[in-house]
Amino acid sequence: MTDKPVILFGGKGGVGKTTCSAATASWFASRGQKSLIITSDMAPSLSDIFEEPIGDCVRNIDKNLFAIEISQEAIVERWKKRFSHDFYDILSQLIDMKALDAESQHQLIDYIGTAPSLREETMLDLIVDIVETGKYDRVVWDTAPAGETLNLLNMPRFIRKHLRAGARVFEGLDKIGKHIIGKRSISETMDDWVLLSERISRFIRERTTFIIVANPEALVVNHVRRIIRTLADYHVDFYGMVINRVIEHADPASIRTIKKLQGKYSAELKTMAGGLPVAFLPLSLWEIKGKKALKEAGAVLAGQLRFF
């Protein structure tokens, strides 16, 4: 097992990352290691898996096991506390912020804080802070689906590149006196952001390792191939892979058990639809891919969903 304190589980959406993350964190905890599982998925399901509320504050959910679901609201609030004053100072040097009423000022800052790049940077900053408290022997990070995860890996490099360029631009404004007396210069503020980004980048490279979760399906395999290339590009340690939902037994008894469970949950789902159209796609021996297969599946869906 890796000696790095943070294990990231990532992959395409729906492959079972949260389940694998929860199982791994539970195992570490059962071995006497104080463990924290973090999910940064914007549609978290940790509470569903552990069958108890978790939320965006660290909670003790079992012996040696702690959990947190980082919500969008928590990220925006953290951004406001940590960085909104810097943005206010910068905007004050470019526009007359005092001419805006208080509500308009807050709306402008809130709008900036929801930018994807700032949200991701703030989330990474939060996770680094949690890990560096040293409270936990192991931290298992259930990351967002593949696209968002790759954005996280890209953020430190992106922030460094663009903030340095921005610092050079705004340095000219500072030099000609377009700064507020008693406030830091724009370039000084941006230099601090560069240092923060470098701290995050160093943390990801030095203290984390990545486990990919995949299903044995063509589309997932293609995603995994891209993830592995990206991990190599950003020098992120790649520890291994979980191939999930592998059919090990195809005997009649196993199939009947699966069919029985599916029938129960299908009935519940149909009831929840409340009389709205419900379509059933049968398990196919072959993956649905290619124009012909997609058209055939589309026809099945269209008929059951009453598109015509």
Describe the structure.
The chain is of the alpha/beta class. The chain has 2 domains: 6-243, 3-Layer(aba) Sandwich (Rossmann fold), CATH 3.40.50; 252-304, no CATH class. Helix content is 56%, strand content 14%. The protein has 10 helices and 7 strands. It has helices at 17-30, 46-50, 72-94, 102-113, 116-131, 146-175, 186-207, 218-233, 252-272, 291-304, and strands at 6-11, 35-39, 59-62, 65-69, 138-145, 208-214, 237-243. It has a 7-stranded mixed sheet with strand order 3-4-2-5-1-6-7. Strand 6 (208-214), helix 8 (218-233) and strand 7 form a beta-alpha-beta unit. Helix 5 packs across helix 7 and helix 6 (146-175) runs antiparallel to helix 7. The protein is globular and about 60 Å long. It starts with 5 loop residues before the first strand and ends with a helix. The model is unreliable at 111-116 and 176-182 (pLDDT under 50).
Summarize the model shown.
The protein is an alpha/beta fold.
